[in-house]
Structures are given as C-alpha cells and as structure tokens.
Amino acid sequence: MSRAEEEHAIVQRKSLGFWIYLMTDCLLFASLFATFAALRNNTFGGPSGADLFDMQFVLIETMVLLTSSFTIGMAVLGASRGYKKQALIWLIATFVLGAIFLAMELFEFHALVEEGNGWQRSAFLSSYFTLVATHGLHIAVGLLWIIVVTIRLWRFKFKHTDLHRLSLLGLFWHFLDIIWIFIFSFVYLIGGMS
Amino acid sequence: MRKPQLEHRHSPVPYISYVIGFVLSVIATLMAYWLVVADIFSGNQAVIIILSIAVVQLIVQLVFFLHIGRGSRWKLATFILAIIFVVMLVAGTIWIMNNLDYNMMNMSPDQMTEYMEHNEGI
Lengths: 194, 122
Fold this sequence. Notes:
The complex is a heterodimer. Chain A has a single domain, classed as Four Helix Bundle (Hemerythrin (Met), subunit A). Chain A has six helices and no strands. By secondary structure, chain A is mainly α. In chain B, α2 packs antiparallel against α3. The longest helix of chain B has 27 residues. The radius of gyration of chain B is 23 Å and the shape is elongated. The N and C termini of chain B lie far apart (68 Å).
C-alpha cells in the first residue's frame, strides 16, 4: 500500500471506532428512555409533564439545536474543500447556537427547581432530569470539543489530522441532535399532552 | 482496480444534502409540534403519529447529515445492531412494566390476591 492509502485506512478505522462509541452511547440513552417510559406516570401527587412544560420554549430550543446541526455540517464541508475562513465562522456559529441551547436548558432546570419541582419531587421528575441532563452534559462536552478543534484548526492551519477530528466532531453533534429529536417527541410532546 | 474505488469513496458530500436535510427536519419538527398544540389527535393515535414523525426525521438526518451509506460497511452493520438493542430495551421495558403495573398499586395483600385471581386468571 502507498502512504496515502495507508493513511486513508487509518482514518477509516478511527472513524469506525468513533462510530461504535456513538452506537454504545445510543444504548445509554435507550436505557434512560426506557426508565423514563416506565416512570412517566409516577408523579407521586406532584405535577405531570402537561403542567410543567412550556411547549413554545422547547420548540425554540429544538430549532436552535437543529440549526447548529446544520451549521456544523457546513463547517465540515467548508473545511474539507479548503474554505478556511468560512469553516471557522460556521464553527463559531455552531458554538454560539450550542451555548444558547445549553443556557436555555439550564434556565428551564433552574425554573423547575425554584418552584420545588426538582429531581427529588417524584419518580417522573427524577427520570426526566436524568435523561435530559445526560443529553445536556453531552452538549457541554461537545462545546468544549468545538473550542479545542476551532483553536487547533486556526493555530495549525487546517492540518490533515485536525480535519479528521472536525469530521468526528460533526458526527458527534449530529448524533446529539438525533437524540434530542426523541427527547422532544417523547418527553415534551407526548409527555406534555393533556 | 483499487484506485478508482478509493476515488469514489472520497467523492465529497454535496452542500445541497445538508440543505435538504435541514429543511425536511424543520418541517417534521413543526408538524409534530403543530399536531400536539392544535390537539388534532388524542391518546394512542397521537403517540403513534408523533413517534412516526420522529422516526422519519431520524431517517432524514441519518441519510442527509450522517451519510449512513458512505464509508465502511461496518458502520451500517453496527448501526443496525444498535437499533435492534434499542428497540428491545425500550419496547421490552414498556411491555414488561405495563404488565407488572398491578404490583405497584396501593393494595393490601388480600386485595392483590383477589385482583390477580380476577384479572389475570392466576
């Protein structure tokens, strides 16, 4: 094999390894979804989803995350075609949108806890906080990763290995958006129906 | 013969793929939201419709954002395996927990025995 082919094979292997990590992460979220599904009606006399969730707020949150999934795709495509400035701008846009999403989620959590509807209120709220906050934690890690990749791309002038890192970051971010679709549909829309 | 294959796999993802994926996802999200807020369907019907819209959006994003058909075949294989596990885990949990729900109700042991004899034929 030539050097280029060898490098290509290594990149392929690393991508597959990361993909398998994402699939195991899927199982983590599946078990949290299953827990939520089993406990969703156990409100222990406390408020249910229909009493708590502000649908409009969650819709905006969803749109913000969806847009950020689009912008990181643009960043990956731009970088792979060599449009450096464009890629950096898309990455920064993704970071801002991700940060807005996380801030909205923390604001929502804060409001719930303030009203005395924290995770200790009922089994329903425990499972709700565990599921949604695990997703939020992934987003926080993703934001850190965006900072690292952006600085590396800018500092090392779009080295080949950093481009590969960026494409893995893209996968991670799209994956988080897909998980959110199910949180939005299952927890908020179905859980919020009266 | 190896080289053209490599070239083929390198063919860049077009921008339009992301635009299509984004527009379809926005439409799916708004549709699901509208169905709930406008209270068009109720009960199980609504649950089934919202979950189907979510699955459609999952497929849209898998194709247009994650490009599931591209790259290694193992990607698809591990994905299918993961989906099988996820469905088993979630559907299995809901099935079993709903079936066992009578265990979690506030009943005295006598009432429980009566309930089980009456409803479950034990």
